[in-house]
Amino acid sequence: MDALIDYLSQFATPRRVQLFKDVAANRTRYITPVLEDIFQAQNASAVLRTCECVGIQDIHIIEERNRFEPIADVELGSAQWLSTFKYNKPGGENMTEAIQTLKRNGYRIVATTPHLKEVSLDNLNLAKGKVALLFGTELKGLTEQALSQADEFVRIPMTGFTESFNISVSVAIVTYTLMRELRNSYLPWKLTDTEQKELVLEWLRKSIKDSELLEKRFNFGK
User: Fold this and answer.
1) CA-CA distances (angstroms) from residue 80 to 38, 44, 46, 100, 220?
2) How crowded is residue 28: how many other Cβ atoms within 10 Å of its Cβ?
């Protein structure tokens, strides 16, 4: 992989290659949002942009009734730098599939919703392990299917009359707060060296014209 990265780096500016490495070094998979049936394109776009800006790499998207369709003028290209995983099989079991997949990969499932067993966002214990954050629809929040499979529940402290924040605002508050806590901790929140290199290679492939042809040429000459 190192040799291929070095080869493709010849076709990008040194500044851009270094930017890829710097950004990858500050990415995390320690926390990951799971978005259930977001139907407003403006919100979908804002969520992607926020996650990319704060350093979250993976986004899990549940599509039951609604398609997740960001607006290019709002997400501003952020989607191309993220790893998105969509669950949209017919039958209505996509949330269950996503949760089971995340649990197999060592995630705790934390629902962002008022609940009897909730904790404030400031008191969520990140030291207990990786966190998958469930966010629900704009109007109704998370479904019972999602809530029944959550391991923990967290709420954003509020002092007004309105019951909840907009979904994109909620994602922004939660991810920014938790990322700030991770960066100030001794927890192993960064990607491994191999994961960072995989991202740099992926971004080089996306940003270099005819990268597929160049890679074939590289492999042929080995």
Assistant:
1) 19, 14, 14, 26, 28
2) 21
**CA 112: distance to chain centroid?**
15
> pLDDT tens digits for 6-50?
999 999 999 999 999 999 999 999 999 999 988 787 888 899 999
In this structure, the dihedral spanned by the alpha carbons of residues 195, 197, 201 and 202, taken in order and rounded to 10 degrees, is 20
Q: Which domains does the chain have, with CATH numbers?
A: 1-25+191-222 (no CATH), 29-189 (3.40.1280.10)
Structure letter (DSSP) for residue 39: -
d(CA 202, CA 4): 11
Distance CA 176, CA 164 (A): 17
Q: Is 77 left (phi over 0), alpha (psi -120 to 50) or beta?
A: left
CB-based contacts of 219, cutoff 8 Å, min separation 6: none
Instruction: For residue 76, count CB atoms less than 10 angstroms from its CB and return exposed for 0-12, middle for 13-18, buried for 19 or more.
Output: middle
pTM of the model: 0.92
Spatial distance between the Cα atoms of 194 and 109, rounded to a whole number of angstroms? 26
DSSP notation for 118-148 = EEEGGG--GGG--EEEEE-BTTTBS-HHHHH
